[in-house]
Amino acid sequence: MKKSILFLFLTISYSFFSQENKTELLSYKFTVDSLYSTHIQDYRTVKIFLPNEYSKDVKYPVIYTLDAQWMFEPTVAESKILMDFDVIPQSIIVGIFHKNRNDDLGIDWTTGAFNQNSLKFYNFLTQELLPKINSTYSTSGFNTLVGHSDSATFCENVITQEEHYFNGFVALSQNLFGKQLQEYIKLTNQSQSKPIFYFVASGKRDATSRLESGLKLDSLFKINKNSNIKSKHILYDADHDGIVAKGLNNGISHIFSEYKHYNDWDEKRIDSLLAKNISSLDFINQHYERMKEIYGVDFKVNYNDISLMQVIARNDTDIESVMNYEIEHIGKSNDFYSGYAQEFEFLKSYEKALEYWEINLKENNKKIKNFFYYRRPIELISIKMGQPKRAIEFAEKWKAKAPRFSSNFNLQIAKIALENNIKTKTGLECIREYIENYKEGLSTDLETAKEIEQKLEEHRNSKN
Q1: Cα–chain-centroid distance for residue 9?
Q2: Which of 6, 61, 145, 169 has the fewest CB atoms within 10 Å of its CB?
């Protein structure tokens, strides 16, 4: 087996935006192998793309594309976009080249079965190439086969074989012959231990037989009752080649449609989880196990998943479990403590919320650039906890530690003193300091500040 390293370059020019001609090159690294097949009695060339941060300690799904002469680079490009945005897990991509594609991909037009040559190629694919990739790289056991035109028709025969070496199929401009449609119907009536993902793309301007094949499958997809056959057909306004450009991304996305992150905007899911009394950790652990079972990957949570876990938490213990989970799997962000302070506020666990506001201020006092992080705990104590005197004391303490926000603290103290008719002297001192050091852009204008001063003065006089 011979190996060499090549690079696929995508060139972006910025000359339209500058007087200087500048070009940046984005490169995809891949390996080129030549593998001898005892079934074919010949060599077949394959290209292998690995994710940028490929590690032997991580398991990767593998996307195999036939017709690599024109399908490998588009498959890499589309898959990498989806990987970069975590729509699909990081995956290995293998492109298979054909010396004579009619031999490798040929179908008996009468029966729809593999012919003598394509059966040899199928055996090479499943008994030689897949084991070689699995032994060389860290693979998850989830394999996808991508085909266009005749190689899409080849996919149909692969999907209906008794032994399933592939879990996902992307068939772009598929044509069906002989009993292929009946074989697919037979497949849908069989129980499957694991999901099979099947995507078919057709074009309105493609050959009539290919369009009709796609529409027949579309009809079957719509009445499919086998929950483990996850099929989808899309009809594009495209010709034979345009189907690839429009359908490849959708096809790969469909294969990994069960791979997803959640967020706190999914109200129906949130209501369902709450109704079922499913805890945050149970939810994410069940999702992790499902991703492991289907795709063989270790699902990595992100902040969207954490947001859903937070919103279905019911008490302090739940929130603390989510917090510890986040520390373990993501780490602490800059807003870690302030975020959980707000979560405890939402649960009306006010002392716990204040504790976390305090931790946030102690950890980040010198880095905080927005008074919001001081105002929120002051309002928590004064309004939600109903302890205005304590709120003023809290504000005075942090005013001394964060003098850059003195005007903001002065205004907050004066307002609390006025609204609750307490510590009037302190309130007057603060509002006068605010007026004395007033600058344009402060949250309360000078005229309003003077009105606060006057009212505080009246309160003080009424007490005397």
Answers
A1: 26
A2: 6
